[in-house]
Every structure is written in C-alpha cells, then in structure tokens.
Amino acid sequence: MTNKHHSPAFILAVLTTLLLLPVAAHAGDIPTLSFSLGDSEDPDAWFTGLKIIAMLTVLTLAPSILVMMTSFTRILIVFAFLRQAMGTQQSPPNQILVGLALFLTLFIMMPVWQKIDNQALTPYLNEDITQAVAVERGIAPLRSFMLKQTREDDLILFLDAAKLKKPAKAEDTPLYVLIPSFVISELRTAFEIGFLIYIPFVVLDLIVASVLMSMGMMMLPPVMISLPLKIILFVLIDGWHLITANLLSSFRM
C-alpha cells in the first residue's frame, strides 16, 4: 500500500476548484471546453488557440505562484521549526501542518481576496471593465500585501540586480522584482520566528542533560526525558494558541 503525499499546490488547486464551482453554477450552466484540430483560413483562430494553450500552461503553475505570493511560506516554515524544536519527529504529520498552514493562509488573505473580488473579478464578470483593467486592479491588493511584508533592503537588492532606479512610489515596483524580494523577506522572518521558538526548548534540553549528568545517568539519552517535558510544557502554556496568535500579528493585519 503506497502512501502518497499531496503537494500544497495540488491541495490549493483542488480547493480553488471547489470554491469556484458554486459561483459558476450560480451564474448559470457550467461551461465546457472542447478542442479540435482542423483546417482554417482565419489566422485569428490560430491565435485564439495559442492563447488558450498559454492560459492552461499558466494555470498549471498558478497554485505554486499563489503559494509563494501569500502568507503560506512563512506559516509552514514556522510550523516545521516548531516540530523540529520539540523533537516529535513526524508528529503532527506533514498533511496536518500543510492543511493548517493552508487554512490559516486563507484566513489571513481573505481581505485581499475580497478586494480582488470587489474591485476586479465582479466588475469583469459583469462586463463593466476590460480584461486588462481587471488584471491591473486584481494585482493591486496582492501587491499591497506583499509590500507590507517585504524589507526595503531586499527590494533594493533586486532593483540593483535588475539595474532599475528606485521607484518614486513603492506601488510602482515591478512584480518580477517584488515577488523574489517578498519571498526572501518571508524566509528571513520565518527563520527569526523559528529561532525564538527554538530557545526555550534548547534551554530545557540543557537543563535535562545537566541534571542527568549530575546524577551519573550518562547512559540515559536526555531526549527520553526532555521530550515528554517539552510536550507537557507546550500544552500547559497553550502553545498552539500562542504560535498562531504571534503568526497572525506578524503579518500586520
């Protein structure tokens, strides 16, 4: 019996599909797509087909792109550091941590999704704005979110690498510069939080090891004593509540 681990991108794609199906059903019949090969004298037909292929190619990468442009990266890395600091090996399992990180991401990003829906998606579906305007309006809330989490030094790094001048307004930063700046800023923040999580558990390990050494129990692995102490300490201080609360506050919501 094989154990297959679904990637975060796959989970996000499935969840997005499930969320969009009721919207499509409410708007009317769910549309279908069909592809066929044949002769045509109209060159625009070929361009339309190429656009559809390009769109489908982008959609396959969309879950990964969205994961890297949201709060998912920081949350998942912090949870991984927490599990390693406690030394619980595979508990909680990867599926639980990924699922919790995904739903916390949906919670944190909900105001951004609502702005995108109100400012771009709904007007575009109502044919009040063009596709170009919808894309521009849809990117604006996501750009604003990433700018709030990105360090200025990281932005300057990629601006200098791209040989671009510092824009007069931060909102004018190109996306190909903003996205990698946001990602490395998220990695730095996640590692900073992970370091703070490690400190109390390392101190507890040192105390347990010192006590065992003083009692002459050098053959007894300290982890056998420190692991249950870590777990009970984490439960007594309501660790999941504290970690989640600090993660939410770190995003400057």
Structural class: mainly alpha
**Topology pattern, helix = H, strand = E:** HHHHHHHHH
Percent of sequence in beta strands: under 5%
Helix content: over 70%
Number of helices: 9
Number of strands: 0
Largest sheet: none
Task: List low-pLDDT spans.
Answer: 1-7, 18-28
Distance between the termini: 44 Å
Average pLDDT taken over every residue? 78
Compute the CA-based radius of gyration: 24 Å
Shape: elongated
Task: Please explain how this structure is put together.
The protein is mainly alpha-helical and 253 residues long. The chain has helices spanning 8-27, 43-68, 72-86, 94-125, 131-149, 152-161, 175-214, 222-236, 239-250. 75% of the residues lie in helices and 0% in strands. The longest helix has 40 residues, at 175-214. The chain is elongated, with a radius of gyration of 24 Å.
Topology readout:
Elements: H1 8-27, H2 43-68, H3 72-86, H4 94-125, H5 131-149, H6 152-161, H7 175-214, H8 222-236, H9 239-250
Helix pairs in contact: 1-2, 3-4, 3-7, 4-5, 5-7, 6-7, 7-8
Would you summarize the structure shown here?
The protein is mostly helical and 253 residues long.
Keywords:
mainly alpha, elongated
